[in-house]
């Protein structure tokens, strides 16, 4: 299956349960094909959970959801050893993190100790239960949600954890025609159940084709220039790390595949640039007072960075 057909098939199936959101669906697909983790930021009611849950169904992947709260413990996510009366021995009860796609709802509501437990899984694709490291299923993708409006009872995500998220995707209010269409479908009860339309073999083939997408040295220099400009911009306390460059490498090849090519163009890099960079830089407080934000400066950097032929 070619990349454009792959994308179209996923989008068509997702239309059964979602109106619009094609850009979000494509970004989630890029994250899956490049094995990158995602933060979905938006107020309640924007269908974040519905999108992620049904996205997993399209591929027949195992899906788990965790509603994170201030009293969530690492064992609630990772699992525990327990004594079995049946076997008269200690056994492992695996937690919801042993899945293909984990939806961590309101990740910033859980304390740092629990967040750090997820950090190992994000980076190493494994979870440690009482000293024993266990491999997670492949693929393993963490898709976390955050409410940008709440400040009470939330914990700031450590920079090390935010850096491991490939994309930060902001969900906005739907357009008028999309919301009207959604209401019609609700009224007519015409939303349908999503079915698996991408087989395990199809997904494995897509992974292989993404890995075979060619990227030139000029594009690598272009990626470096984008990342480097965030490091030297005086308006930022710090810029993007080399991990951002690595995520550009993986994600741009997935974008090229979905755009129907076996080679990366600068436009493929630009397509995902703001989603990779927006949460990997920190603005100096003086510039915040002047009304600036990360988004505007990142857009400026993208616009002013040209590829050298």
From TrEMBL:
Keyword annotations: ATP-binding, Nucleotide-binding
Keyword Transferase on entry: no
A GO MF label: ATP hydrolysis activity
Entry annotated with the keyword Nucleotide-binding: yes
Coiled-coil spans in chain: none
A Pfam family this chain is assigned to: AAA_lid_2
InterPro entries: ATPase_AAA-3, CbbQ/NirQ/NorQ/GpvN, ChlI/MoxR_AAA_lid, P-loop_NTPase
The name this protein goes by in its record: ATPase associated with various cellular activities, AAA_3
Taxonomic classification: Archaea, Methanobacteriati, Methanobacteriota, Methanomada group, Methanococci
């Amino acid at each position: 299956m070619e990349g454009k057909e792959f994308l179209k098939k996923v989008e068509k199936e997702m239309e059964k349960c979602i109106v619009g959101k094609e850009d979000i669906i494509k970004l989630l697909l890029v994250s899956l094909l490049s094995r990158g983790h995602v933060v979905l930021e938006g107020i309640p009611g924007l269908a974040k959970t519905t999108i992620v849950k049904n996205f997993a169904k399209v591929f027949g992947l195992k899906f788990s959801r965790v509603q994170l709260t201030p009293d969530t413990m690492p064992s609630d996510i990772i699992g525990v050893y327990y004594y079995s009366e049946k076997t008269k021995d200690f056994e492992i009860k695996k937690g919801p993190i042993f899945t293909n796609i984990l939806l961590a709802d309101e990740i910033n509501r859980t304390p740092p100790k629990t967040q750090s437990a997820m950090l190992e899984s994000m980076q190493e694709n494994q979870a440690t239960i009482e000293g024993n490291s266990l491999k997670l299923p492949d693929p393993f993708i963490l898709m976390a949600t955050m409410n940008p409006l709440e400040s009470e009872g939330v914990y700031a995500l450590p920079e090390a954890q935010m850096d491991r998220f490939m994309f930060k995707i902001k969900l906005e209010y739907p357009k008028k025609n999309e919301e009207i269409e959604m209401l019609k479908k609700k009224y007519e009860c015409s939303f349908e159940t999503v079915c698996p339309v991408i087989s395990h073999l199809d997904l494995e083939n897509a992974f292989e084709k993404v890995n075979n997408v060619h990227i030139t040295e000029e594009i690598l220099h272009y990626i470096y220039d984008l990342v480097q400009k965030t490091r030297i911009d005086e308006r930022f306390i710090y810029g993007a790390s080399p991990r951002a460059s690595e995520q550009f490498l993986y994600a741009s090849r997935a974008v090229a595949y979905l755009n129907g090519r076996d080679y990366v163009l600068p436009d493929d890099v630009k397509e995902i640039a703001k989603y990779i960079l927006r949460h990997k830089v920190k603005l100096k407080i003086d510039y915040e007072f002047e009304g600036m934000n990360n988004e505007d400066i990142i857009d400026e950097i993208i616009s002013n960075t040209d590829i050298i032929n």
